[in-house]
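Replying to the earlier thread about multi-chain prediction with a worked example.

Input:
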Amino acid sequence: MSAAILKEAQSSSQASPRMDSAELGETLVEIRDLEKRFSLSGDFLEQLTFEKGRLRRKQEYVHAINGVTLDVKRGEALCVVGESGCGKSTVARTVMGLLKPSGGEVRFDGTRIDNMAPRDLLPYRRRMQMIFQNPYASLNPRMTIQQTLEEPLRFHQPTLKDGEVRDKIEEVMRSVGIDPDWGKRFAHEFSGGQRQRISIARALAVDPEFIVADEPISALDVSIQAQVLNLMMEAQEQRNLTYLFITHDLAVVEHFGTRVAVMYLGTLCELADTRSLFARPRHPYTQALMSAIPRLHDDKPNHIRLEGEVPTPVNLPSGCVFHGRCPHANQRCRTEIPRLIATDTGQVACHAVEEGRID
Amino acid sequence: MALLEVNNLDVRFAMRGGEVRALRDVSFTLERGERLGIVGESGAGKSVAAFTILNLIAKPGYIAGGEIKFDGEVLNTLKPKAMQSIRGNRISMIFQDPMMTLNPVLTIGEQMIECLKAHRRISRKDARAIALHKLNQVFIPSPEKRLDQYPHELSGGMRQRIIIAIALLLDPDIIVADEPTTALDVTIQAEIMELLLLLCEKHNVGLILITHDLGVVSQVTQRTLVMYAGRVIEQGPTREIINDAQHPYTQGLINALPQMATPGSRLNQIRGSMPTLTKIPAGCAFNPRCDFAANICLEKVPAFAHSGNCKVACHMVDAMVAGERWTPIITDANGNGATPTDSHRTEVNA
Ligand SMILES: Nc1ncnc2c1ncn2[C@@H]1O[C@H](COP(=O)(O)OP(=O)(O)OP(=O)(O)O)[C@@H](O)[C@H]1O
Ligand SMILES: Nc1ncnc2c1ncn2[C@@H]1O[C@H](COP(=O)(O)OP(=O)(O)OP(=O)(O)O)[C@@H](O)[C@H]1O
Ligand code: SF4
Ligand code: SF4
Ligand SMILES: [Mg+2]
Ligand SMILES: [Mg+2]
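Result:
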């Protein structure tokens, strides 16, 4: 009855299917054999232990990323998914230059940026911006919204006149649907969704080409998530933005992503265009992950149960990092690290797929 | 008679800036072995509802009205000691954060044995045997070893399994679970939910599951309660609500999910956000965000209308069920309802 009428009235907006992976542009960001280790052993003195009558130096590392190779194409939204602790945020922060990689390279628009001096990096810093998960922590509580938005603009374009800065800020505020009158107020006066809009406005103010968003909607309510996702999609369309979008919400990935990279324990298991990945996940971990999505119209859970627990990245398993939990693991998996091989729709790192043992 | 009956619950927090009305006129029932989902946005009052059932509301919060009846007994006037024996024994709670239940300085075994001994006259040896049996039920690998481990030695998923084992320890009639898997990974989340469902079904335990994930509600519960700004705005069979929600807010919530839109298209967002509970709009609290609001929505709190097997607090649904015409207050160029502007809105403080 009434519901049908309402639904029709509410779904007034028209579908505008997003970029197809077949139309992918040239590479904007290149990530090559990226590695990142964090030392757990403290400084030199703390690493020394006395064993069997002599001093030894003992170092322990968290192997957060272990050889990830990934291209981000201009104009796409590349989503990165995977279990907590698999290295998603570390990839994001390394790409942004907030962390130095322990190995491998990051190139932006053809130029290697991971080993650049901070001063040479400045122009690139403007072209790439980051949005964080927590809209409460990422905005300075002592600055008004106006000041928050002006800061990056004045930093990156010091020659702009006051009037030009003001006009620019007003324009981005309007484009993300925040009232320019809010400028005089402080971040704590706004709701989570409004704050995340302000974070997005701040990222957009300097006209970036590339935005790294680390769980930008995870802290928000469903109805607000839709607002922020719509905003990010609109901005992408209007400004031809490229996104590296990190999330653990697969329904969001299915909606938003051009391609998806699936990570497990610091390695890339599978990369494919979104539609193919959801239609036919190839890697056993991707398959388990997909089956765990609670679908709205399911009335029973129906997932692939994994054995065991995620190992720690301190002592990485030998061979395939997933072998301890994989239903298809064999002897080769326990000793030999699977290479990333091309499939018809993307890439996958799995012996069983390579050998044709699984489909 | 239902096993649990919550009638016209009114819960407030006396704050310096005025009273926060966290729950208003909240009523629902739970039959033996039934699974009920409570959904709604952050701050809607879901956790307060759960805490109130267990009589865990502490100052500055208080129950200003209404009653909670469990198995014929009114819980909210019970003496603390009598309540304690019901809590854990007949109704147990699973919190989002496992460390709210687990004591970090005691081993898992010690905690379980202590809990059993507090409620039953039982020897240590028998208590340990029961604890072991419960760990087996939640499929914990090498349960014997876990009994002697401390909470920090276990992974998040393992800890949440132990919490479920503890919740089941005294064979309760009802488990109240407040976002039991939100902090966990998708794959582990699915495992824990399946486990909870399996055990509730097997032992005929009632479940009140609080979550913001409509997919989980759909898989686990039989009935659903939707809350908004401290009130229940829709309740009924889960399938009916998911497939054919009647309240504009519930519809908005479901339609906003990415699963409901073509990939890459614009999502159906609800504009604005839920009001803070000190500034709830007069009339229907959803009116500033509702496309269908009419004058009456700005003035009068809607009573429940019956539509199918659902109860819906909405004037429009009420009018439509009665076969009356409904005209939204303002019509935009496309003939759809538009927002009542701020000038239409009176804000009432508590
Ligand atoms: N500064 C650091 N020092 C030591 N270890 C770190 C540091 N930052 C991250 N790690 C470790 O590196 C691994 C990868 O962490 P990362 O934050 O990248 O994971 P993630 O995939 O983003 O997880 P989540 O989904 O929980 O955000 C984890 O084991 C983490 O504990
Ligand atoms: N101890 C308290 N003191 C004051 N106000 C409180 C207290 N506990 C809860 N409230 C208020 O009661 C309202 C309902 O809170 P509740 O925790 O039930 O929300 P919820 O629906 O569980 O939200 P979430 O999804 O974020 O857990 C909130 O507005 C909150 O500010
Ligand atoms: S390489 Fe082996 S262990 Fe790894 S995912 Fe493939 S089958 Fe499983
Ligand atoms: S139509 Fe009126 S009563 Fe119904 S949800 Fe909208 S504002 Fe509330
Ligand atoms: Mg992270
Ligand atoms: Mg809560």
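Chain A touches chain B through 60 residues (CB under 8 Å).

Feel free to reuse this layout for your own posts.
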